[in-house]
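To close the section, here is one more complete example, presented without commentary so you can practise reading it yourself. The ligand is nickel (II) ion.
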Amino acid sequence: MSILKVACMGHPVLRTKSRPVAPGDIPSHHVQRLIDDLFETMEEYHGIGLAAPQVHHSLRIFVAGISLEPGAVPDDEAGMPRVALINPEITPAGRSIVDGWEGCLSIPDIRGRVPRAETVRVTGYDRTGAPVDATISGLPARVVQHETDHLDGILFFDRMQSFETLSYLEEYRRYWARDDDD
Ligand code: NI
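Output:
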């Protein structure tokens, strides 16, 4: 496994729509190695999600430190849950929109509040090629929306309704973190 270089905002790969993975290619060495490297890179940089375009691979794959099981604890002492999703498709379930803080390894040391659907249904494939169909809420739903956006060349700035909360990490911790809701 390898720690990969993360593309930062301004790199065109982050603004390019990624290609779907042919389901028959999911077991391939290339795809499996990329997924391993995405996990290793995400954990090295303490992210909660990382999409293939962020490591210069324009493919519809992301990994995240979340569980797709309803009611799962997002993070605990036993370590982050891990999920890899291939060709994810998202549909909002319900109309509720919630604001929450986001950051992105491609936009280092910046935080901002982003409105997202509270609950979404996500379909796609896992790394074994098995179909995934899950309805999730809260932080996992936010992460899945953020990462799926990367596959369409969309960054979280694009989803902000106002830039008033846009903060450097130090100022976020100093002035905003007490209101942290994720
Ligand atoms: Ni991101």
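Once you have examined the tokens, check your reading against these statements. Residues 104-106, 146, 150 surround nickel (II) ion (CB under 6 Å). The two ends are 30 Å apart (CA to CA).
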